[in-house]
């Protein structure tokens, strides 16, 4: 009990919260960018109106499949060590965001494509028969219905993204887990309390995201 009290002193908690804030920053930026890019890639992946769009869809599909089958840790290493070799200088924060966005965009693109495919094809046909263009029908009729179907899968991806930020510890990103490691490396008796504190903080942010997604889903259905 004494070790627990000492481990969770205000100084240590403040240090953990600094790392927690970095985790939140990386997560929020990555979620926003990956959703936007993933939505665009998913639409391109689904669209096959003519020969040109079919070719583009296939190329995008190959790129998405390659990224989805690579370990996230490898993408993090490439972002941090590989990009500087190509002349693109990035720090640990930027490299982490780039890696998360690249990996999650590919995952979300498939979620978007699956969500669109889950919508009754008659919705598109009905919109087109009423004079809408393909993009108008997709934007105003199909996509809103698909998004409601995507919420559980998107939530799962976003929660995974938040937890995957801990992998950036390997490139010395000063996020939550990295700060916890610094604390318990000074006193190994603090290891269990630090892991418990980290678990609670991850649970808070993931549970908050889950609750918001459930609320949003109910509001949209209503």
Automatic annotation (TrEMBL):
Sequence ranges assigned to domain ABC transmembrane type-1 in this UniProt record: 20-213
Q: What is its main location?
A: membrane
Q: What keywords appear on the UniProt entry? A: Cell membrane, Membrane, Transmembrane, Transmembrane helix, Transport
The record's PROSITE patterns line, in alphabetical order, gives:
ABC_TM1
Does the keyword Nucleus feature in the UniProt annotation?
no
Q: Where in the cell is it found?
A: Cell membrane
Q: What is the protein's membrane topology class?
A: Multi-pass membrane protein
According to the record, the segments passing through the membrane are: 20-44, 56-81, 194-216
Specify the domain of life of the species encoding this protein: Bacteria
Which Pfam families would you find in this protein's record?
A: BPD_transp_1
Q: Among its keywords, does the record have Transmembrane helix?
A: yes
| Similarity remark | Belongs to the binding-protein-dependent transport system permease family.
- What is the recorded name of this protein? Glutamine ABC transporter permease
The source organism is: Lactobacillus nasalidis
Q: What is the lineage of its organism?
A: Bacteria, Bacillati, Bacillota, Bacilli, Lactobacillales
Gene designation: glnP_2
